[in-house]
User: Which sequence fits this backbone?
């Protein structure tokens, strides 16, 4: 894995490299607003869900921040302009060229935004008698998924009475 030094003000890692078990290398991700809760392609959308997001006071306050507006613009550019994504990739591996990169799958990670417009940077758990709901799985999601899953399993096991 090759990671950039991230901005501590943001819960994003930036473009990074991860070798998969089959030997292929994933380059990414970038962080953009999904136009729906299950909009896995950048052309997918759910107008009702997008409207909910755009009209949420916390989201509007988030985008009022010059830093976040700049980040949002840069991330959108990397999503829709391959040369911008390649340029971000070259900061870690200078020999990478745009033609080396192929579009791959997308994932969606929930990112809570407070009503004040702040990105919530910690996982948020809502526990019930028989469930643990994770409402904010912050980065690095994939690289910490096994230990995080173990943590959730331990929380659930503590709820089970035999």
Assistant:
């Amino acid at each position: 894995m090759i990671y950039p030094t991230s901005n501590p003000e943001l819960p994003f890692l930036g473009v990074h490299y991860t070798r998969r078990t089959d030997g292929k290398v994933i380059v990414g991700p970038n962080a953009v607003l999904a136009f729906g809760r299950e909009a896995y392609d950048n052309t997918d959308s759910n107008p009702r869900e997008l409207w909910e997001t755009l009209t949420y006071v916390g989201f509007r306050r988030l985008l009022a921040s010059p830093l976040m507006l700049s980040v949002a613009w840069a991330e959108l550019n990397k999503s829709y302009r391959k040369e911008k994504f390649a340029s971000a990739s070259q900061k870690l591996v200078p020999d990478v060229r745009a033609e080396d990169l192929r579009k791959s799958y997308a994932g969606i990670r929930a990112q809570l935004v407070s009503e004040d417009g702040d990105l919530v940077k910690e996982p948020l758990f809502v526990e019930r008698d028989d469930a643990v709901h994770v409402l904010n799985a912050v980065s690095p999601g994939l690289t910490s998924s096994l230990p995080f899953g173990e943590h959730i399993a331990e929380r659930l096991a503590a709820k089970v009475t035999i």
User: Anything to note?
Assistant: The chain has two domains: 1-109, 122-162. The two ends are 42 Å apart (CA to CA). DSSP finds five helices and four strands in the chain. Strands lie at 16-19, 25-28, 125-128, 131-134.
